[in-house]
Each structure stands twice: as C-alpha cells, then as structure tokens.
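Hi, here's the filled form for the chain we discussed.

Project: internal
Contact: R.S.
Residues: 212
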Amino acid sequence: MFDYYLFDLDGTLTDPGLGITNAVMYALSKYGISVNDREQLYKFIGPPLLDSFHEYYGFDDKQCAEALAYYREYYSVTGLLENEVYDGIIDLLKQLKAAGKTIILATSKPEEYSVRILEHFNLLEYFDDVSGATMDEKRSKKDEIITYALRKNNIVDTNKCVMIGDRKYDILGGKKNHLKTMGVLYGYGSHDELTAAGADYLVSSPAEIFKI
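And the returned structure, exactly as it came back:
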C-alpha cells in the first residue's frame, strides 16, 4: 500500500523509558526537584523537551534551556544506551527492505543521538535516511521534522507515505503533512490519545504494521 515508511524512534522502534526518565531526573535534581515515581516522567517521551519542562514544571525559557543542557549531560553519555529494541522490530525492518520499501526515521530526538542509537542497536543499515531535530531545538516539533524528511528525500506523492508512531504528536504531525498515520499501542501513547488524534490505523505489534 505504501512506498515510504516514516518511523518515530522512542516508543515505536525502541523502548527508551529508562534512559529518558533517568536524564529528566538528573536535570530536575539540579533544581532540587525529586521524582520517586518514574512513570510520572513518561509524559516526557515524545514531545520536544523544552515544551515539556515548561508545561510540566513551569520553567521559564532560561530554565528550560538550562534543564535541556543538564538532560543532555546525562543522556549523551549514558541515557541514550539505556534503551532496548522492541520485539519484532528487526523482523519488520527486514521485511520492509526485502519488499523494496523506503524506510525513514522521523524523530524529535536530535539526529546526532538518533544515529548513535540506531548504530548501537544495529538498526541503521535498514534506514534510507535519518531525519531528526537540531541540537539547538530550532527544528524539534514533529510536523516540522516530517516536512524536513519529505523535502530531504524529494517525496512529493504523500499518498504513498505513512507516518508510524506511538504518540499524538506523530499522528498530528503526519496529518498536517497529508500523510496516512499509524498509531502503535505498544509504546507510550494510549488508545484514546491516538484515536483522538485521528490515527488512520492502530496496531498492537510490529508484525501488524507489515500486515497493513
């Protein structure tokens, strides 16, 4: 049905829960904030980090920039490898490549970190392109990332594309770029969140992605 498959990274290809929450805890500790329940920080998985520090902790612009720098102190060394590939993802990517599909990473994570993660987990070989955020966060919102990926890969016929992700940001970003969208239920977004965002398809496993 599709020729181009755009994948989110966190919560779609890999489970980043431990690394991201550890990095957020590290950043918040610099402000004397302690979080005992890791699950309270799962909301940081998906949206741009600057937005999350502002929305969830009321940080001003200066504090958000500082918190992001602290986050990266931890994440760039340790956190990005506190991660694991979801069962079935490698088989899915192999099947898509064997079928001649173009596979693109479209993530709000900085490209530099994204490439390192894909390399570490032996996933990079399956991707035709990696499109991510800039380190200065000037390109960080999912719709901007998707627009960038489409332009970078000279994709004009959006009817041949599908955006796959686990959060509403993936679905809304895909729709804004006139793509079909697929929400994965094994990540960090709920059925209600993905449905409300208008996902065209919902899947419970990587194997279902290939079936569709």
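Let me know if anything looks off before we file it.
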